[in-house]
Amino acid sequence: MLKVVSGLHPGIPTPPIFYGGSELMAAMTANALIEEGFDVCLEAIPRSWKTWYYYFNVDPPKKECRDIDLTISYIMPAASEDNEKMVHVYQGVVFQLKRAIKVFASKPQYEVYKHLFGLVSGHVIPNTIPEWLYTPREKWDDGDYYLYLNRCDKNKGCEEFVNACIREKEKCYMITQFWFVEDVEYAKAVVEKARNNGIKVYVNIGPLEKIELIKNAKAVVGFLTERYFEGYGLWVHEANYLRVPVISTPVQAVPWTMMRGYLVEKPTFSQYLEEVRKDENEWREDRSYKKYKERWIKLVEEVLSR
Asked: CA-CA distance, 27 to 281, in Å (whole number)?
């Protein structure tokens, strides 16, 4: 049996409804393994079995874990679990396990860990999305507002986005939430400032409503600071999959994850450092759920055969 360990935050099931990138990736991995015929159990909050069918058609993982052959963990595990039959997936937080097999969401994230800890081995499996829920729009050059799609933190450029909308007199929307924010009062103050200046703000909306708001955007924007460690940028992936450009500062994995968009030096919607324009077919192939599943199956089979 394969055990997938997800987040245990009481408000975030696996898969999540409102927010939870790690929880979504844990569910995507479990789903891929179940589709391939593996016996899978899930360690997550009880509500996870209620949200499973919102995303997937196969039966959910088992609730009880027995006779575990391999553990795939998306959270920091206990030191006693650090062994050769554990795969640890690094989604953002910087720490190291010595013996576990390490999986990273991007090459830039892997390079950071190599620099910090002198790693000699690791696997890169780029994140993906439940693409059967996403239908790309026909044209890249479409939409009539700029969209912020992230937690409202200082280092994620939440207030910088609001200020740019006001300064450049642009139509703007925000999709955000207050879980895991560094400063809740700061986040609420920025959201109030946004609403007071005519910016529409959506808090804790479901995946389908979020997808429609992304599809109607001119661009999805992230003015992240260098202090924020962006290990992949699922918001970049979602926007580009739907053929919506991204405008972002060039921090960590964002340029690597991005297919189409613009890199900026400071918070602005018009003064670009560089345009990113990768081959769309190649990007979609490399970041597809099909490729994600292939990579995970290959890794799991390699580990189990040792």
From this structure: 26
CATH code of the domain occupying 2-126+288-304: 3.40.50
2-126+288-304 with 131-281: one CATH topology? yes
Cβ atoms of 160 and 269 within 8 Å: the answer is no
Contact 93, 84 (CB under 8 A): no
**What is the sign, positive or negative, of the torsion defined by CA atoms of 5, 149, 114, 287?**
positive
- Residue 220's pLDDT is 98
- Judged on CB neighbours under 10 Å (0-12, 13-18, 19+), 294 is middle
What integer is the mean pLDDT of 230-257?
96
Distances (CA, A) of 283 to 81, 228, 240, 260, 269: 35, 25, 10, 10, 24
Which class in CATH covers the domain with range 131-281?
A: alpha beta
Tell me the domain boundaries of the chain. Answer: 2-126+288-304, 131-281
Dump pLDDT digits (tens) for 28-46.
999 999 999 999 999 999 9
Give 33-37's long-range contacts (Cβ < 8 A, gap of 24+): 33/2, 33/4, 33/296, 33/297, 33/300, 34/58, 34/59, 34/61, 35/293, 36/293, 36/297
Q: In Å, how far are 6, 104, 122, 246 from 10, measured between CA atoms?
A: 12, 25, 31, 32
Amino acid at 282: E
- Among residues 7, 289, 237, the alpha carbon closest in space to that of 130 is found at 289
pTM of the predicted structure, to 2 decimals: 0.93
Q: How confident is the model at residue 88 (pLDDT cuts 50, 70, 90)?
A: confident
